[in-house]
Amino acid sequence: MKKFVYAFFLGSFFIPALVKAQDPVSYKVATDRLLWHDNIDKQQKKLVDEAGAVKVSTDPALNLHVSNALIKRVDQLQMQIELDTVFNGNTKKKYLRSLEMMLKGFTDNFKNKDFGIALAQPLVDAFEEGMKLDYKNESVFPLIEREPYGVAKILVELFTFPTENPGVAPGRTEVLRKYLGLHPEEILKVLRNNTDLYFADSFIVIAANYDIPRFYDFAQARNALGDRIRKHPDTLVHTIATMANSKSGRLYMPFLENILRGKITMEDIDKVLTNEFAYYRLLVNTRIEYAGRLLPPTRDTARELKSLTDMMRKKAQEYFVNEINALHSENNEAVRFKRLEGLTAQELYYLAVLCEDQIYTSSFVKGVYPRIFQRMSNPRGDSLLLSVHADFFRKFIKMCAGYNTLNDFLGRIEKDNANILMKAFVIGLEKTKGTEEAVDVADSYSSIMDKNPELARFIRTEVEWNYEKNEIIQNRKGITIYNILKVLFQSADTSKKVDVSAELGIPPVYTVDLKSLKDDSSRIVMQAFFYGDEDKDGQNSFASFMANFRGNANWKVTENAEWVSIINNKNKNFQIYANKPLYGENDPEETAIDHLNDYLFDRNIQPSVYIHRGHSYHVKSTMRRLMPSARIVVLGSCGGYNNINEVLNISSDAHIISSKQTGTMHVNEPIIQALNASITAGKNIDWVAIWKELTGKFTSGDAKEKFDDYIPPYKNLGALFIKAYNLRINN
How far is CA 309 from CA 53, 91, 254, 290, in A? Predict the structure, then answer.
């Protein structure tokens, strides 16, 4: 960075002195080149603070690196160019301009991960070398080829004026090659319009290995790139191209790994393509084989494992689970579960774990779960898990806990082995991808604590041990996961009085402030969803619900053919809306819900309390209508517990009440009445007090058993885990 001192001499064509702030050496700058030196200074000033110190990083070493390269060294290059006795005036302007462009390239891009601060010195060195080559009209391509992408990208544009260096054109192609090497996700998009690039064939192979499903789509295209892919000699590329140009291509994809290994052919797969049962069996057997490869010592991840799993889930749901769910009202189990005949224990196991969100409670408890062990010659729980290489074992344990079959499952394992299994259930969560398996552990704990306190204590001890282990090795993910689990599991024992909100820094879990339920017009709005059913379940629930309001002087009921509005006479800002459970062709209740939602939307009425009533297969319809304004969500259906994650994706602060088992209006009604009483009285929602009051109403028999399966918001440990984890990761 320089400071110009102007001293004009009569009759002189030059203005003399440029005095450097860092360097006492002075030199004359021709008048017509002052602008170019000034432009360089302006770019340098972008790198320094008001005190003139380079501040591009919090690392002093990197700041010094930039200062030496782009301040001191650039200043020296300016002087070198200006005083050079070989360069003519235009040549000096050319390289001063290039020096400015080099600085601009750095200042504009150093924060980009493809460039970085550390390229400052290599960039200056390459520029100086390139300047010498360019002056001799020699190609700068060897430099561009040698340097990493960040340097090459800037360098290639520095030698284009007034005539382009012979190395620029091939250099741009080389820069593109370097860029695609860093960004394989861009390869196919670039090659689609540039199939004649010299590196096209080698990068087609890279693209195929990087993202097989996307590559499959490009291999289908009837264009120049598609043709080049189809003619490619590489085995993987050729195999994908063959699949992509077959009408059954997607059905082959799950077996890609074994096709490439020569263990199966597309002709072999053709034999089962039209038989849903046989095709599903082939998928399961392949998944079990792949799961075995994931274990030590091979630890080999098969290509397109996700495609295999997705296809298994699709076939399991469409052909098996949807069928047994649809027959939920069929009392004859032989008729309802006929579709499961002939399935092995392993095939039934995968039906369960892959269709967790779709399978009905009764479909699992009465159909899939018991048949797993009926199909085993030695019906042991550990034998089942070993036969699938423990694939999805945490998911299966979570489902057993949620559906109250865990004690039965563990009872099928010798106690020592059961303890080893539950230890494995807890350990190593820091090594798993994402947090789904940690959420499964959290979700399971309330059920385990209620049904097996001894096992709950064992799990809590294991969680505390894993927390301490991860603290010792300073595994951030592990510390986060196990600290949250430790706090949640301690809080599940209400006698310990653990304040989850304070410990984990999440919004209150024991109470809901009434103010948070109000919309912009100070209204508290509840929306209830009812569905018409052949077995009259939805109709009976609606009748029971409305009995609380019709004929009650505290409420004003207004209705039309499709829905009702219920307004509290004492607190007119408390409003309830519910659709009627119409039944008939084309699901008339769906139309009623849509018309009610249109009414609410047109009047800017935003519910903050949502009630779902009816069978679990109607939950998806309710979920589609849930709004981010939701603060309390009551999932009064069978297995509503399994929809917690979906609710939180819509409203991260929602308090959720759900059932792990069978939802019933005999429990739903008292819960709703307790909510209504608090809101009408203008009191904050106190879940502990409400649950204590409700517990007193359900003291024995079937009603108590059903109520015990309902989980209050402060015990929805999976939901609380997600809230706490997201908060910590995002902060």
Answer: 56, 64, 8, 11
Q: CA separation (Å) from 12 to 7, 15, 92, 678?
A: 10, 7, 21, 93
Phi then psi dihedrals of residue 212, to 5 deg: -65, -45
To the nearest 10°, report the CA torsion of 666, 661, 319, 613: 30
Cβ(485)–Cβ(438) under 8 Å? yes
Query: What pLDDT band is residue 360 in, cutting at 50, 70 and 90?
Result: confident
The string of DSSP letters for 638-690 reads: TTGGGGHHHHHHH-TT-EEEEESS---HHHHHHHHHHHHHHHHTTPPEEHHHH
Distance of CA 664 to the CA centre of its chain: 34
pLDDT of 683-700, one tens digit each?
999 998 999 999 898 887
Question: The tokens of 607 are what?
Answer: 């519910």
Cβ 288 vs Cβ 346: under 8 Å: yes
CA pair distance 554, 556, nearest whole angstrom: 7
Angle at 361 between CA 359 and CA 363, to 5 degrees: 60
DSSP states of 490-531 = HHTSGGG---HHHHHTPSPSSEE-GGGGB-TTS-EEEEEE--
Q: From 622, 603, 602, select the one nearest 611 (Cα to Cα).
A: 622
SS3 sequence, 522-554? CCEEEEEECCCCCCCHHHHHHHHHHCCCCCCCC
Count, residues in the chain: 731
User: What's the whole-number average pLDDT of the chain?
Assistant: 90
Nearest C-alpha neighbor of 283 from the set 260, 242, 261, 253: 253
Rounded to the nearest 10 degrees, the angle between the axes of helix 453-473 and helix 436-451 is: 150
Cβ(680)–Cβ(570) below 8 Å? yes
Could you identify the residue written with the tokens 């339920």? Answer: 517
The model's pLDDT over 305-346, given as tens digits with 9 standing for 90+, comes to: 999 999 999 999 999 999 998 898 789 999 999 999 999 999
The Cβ-side half-sphere exposure at 65, using a 13 Å CA radius, reads 15
Tokens of 352: 């369960």
Number of Cα atoms under 13 Å in the Cβ half of residue 720: 35
3-class state of residue 2 by DSSP: strand
Return the structure tokens found at 132.
């010498």
- The secondary structure of residue 575, as a DSSP letter, is E
Other CB atoms within a 10 A radius of the CB of residue 628 amount to: 11
160 burial (CB, 10 Å; 0-12 / 13-18 / 19+) is middle
